[in-house]
């Protein structure tokens, strides 16, 4: 499972909320973190999160079994390790 | 005398006593900090023949930057001005002093003071948890004035500690990268918060 961790504070919680709209994605609480998991890629559209620049680019706490393949002004994509986009 | 058995309070430091920098232009420095920004002069040590042989005479002067903290400068008489002409922009931006204000009104007041001077504000930006203005002082030092945008929470502090633990590990290995850092941090999170996590749904 591709897993993205975001800290469960008001600034970053919207990322998990937006990611959770994908039916393949589950969100669990692990300590102070929201653990966002999906069998494939995790995609988060920035506009849907409403995050300004600094928050958007500091929103990823950690990544397990995956890597950030795109993180620009419009989208964050975490893909399973060993895959392309 | 200290001993390992002695009970020590964990953390007894109390902020910045003073941060000190050399200046080769005391007139501009005093104008900038005292007259433009309004930082009171609170102390000056005038030392005749106290310094080493190549710069025995100096003035060490201090500005109050609030909270009892001070910003200090050394001016050495008879020393040719030196400037880091080849300083990479990365270092110029990374080395800076950030002075705290409590609110937006205070931040804007200092912005107005700068903008009305020969050293206008160069950048105003909302970071993750603070909003800041930046200016390069007459000595070429980057200075920031910053206000909090929100309170720092216990979660922020926990995350910071997991981050530096992951960084300690990754930075000691060959070819450290942010990708490796994220993976190591995920491993630390899993270790520290093991067990079946609770499912979260958003309303």
From TrEMBL, chain A:
It comes from the Bacteria. This is Uncharacterized protein.
TrEMBL record, chain B:
Residues 15-148 form the VOC domain. It comes from the Bacteria. Gene3D superfamilies: 2,3-Dihydroxybiphenyl 1,2-Dioxygenase, domain 1 (3.10.180.10). Coiled coil: none annotated. Pfam families: Glyoxalase (PF00903). InterPro entries: Glyas_Bleomycin-R_OHBP_Dase, Glyas_Fos-R_dOase_dom, GlyoxalaseI/FosfomycinResist, VOC_core. This is VOC family protein. The lineage of its organism: Bacteria, Bacillati, Actinomycetota, Actinomycetes, Pseudonocardiales.
């Amino acid at each position: 499972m591709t897993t993205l961790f975001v800290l469960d504070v008001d600034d970053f919680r919207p990322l998990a909320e937006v990611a959770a709209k994908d039916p393949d994605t589950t969100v669990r609480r692990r300590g102070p973190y929201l653990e966002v998991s999906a069998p494939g890629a995790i995609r988060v559209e920035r506009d849907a999160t409403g995050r300004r620049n600094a928050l958007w680019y500091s929103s990823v706490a950690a990544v397990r079994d995956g890597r950030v393949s795109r993180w620009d002004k419009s989208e964050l994509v975490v893909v399973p390790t060993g895959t392309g986009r | 005398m200290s001993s390992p058995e002695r009970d020590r309070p964990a953390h007894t430091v109390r902020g910045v006593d003073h941060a000190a920098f050399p200046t080769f232009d005391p007139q501009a420095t005093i104008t900038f900090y005292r007259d433009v920004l309004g930082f009171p002069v609170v102390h000056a040590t005038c030392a005749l023949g106290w310094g080493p042989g190549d710069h025995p005479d100096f003035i060490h002067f201090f500005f109050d930057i609030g909270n009892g903290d001070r910003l200090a400068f050394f001016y050495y008489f008879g020393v040719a001005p030196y400037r880091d002409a080849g300083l990479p922009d990365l270092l110029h931006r990374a080395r800076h002093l950030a002075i705290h204000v409590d609110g937006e009104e205070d931040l804007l007041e200092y912005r107005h003071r700068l903008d009305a001077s020969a050293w206008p504000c160069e950048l105003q930006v909302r970071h993750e948890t603070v909003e800041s203005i930046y200016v390069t002082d007459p000595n070429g030092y980057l200075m920031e004035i910053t206000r909090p945008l929100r309170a720092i929470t216990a979660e922020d502090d926990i995350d910071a500690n997991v981050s530096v633990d992951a960084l300690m590990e990754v930075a000691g290995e060959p070819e450290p990268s942010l990708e490796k850092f994220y993976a190591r941090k995920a491993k630390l999170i899993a270790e520290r918060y093991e067990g079946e996590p609770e499912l979260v749904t958003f309303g």
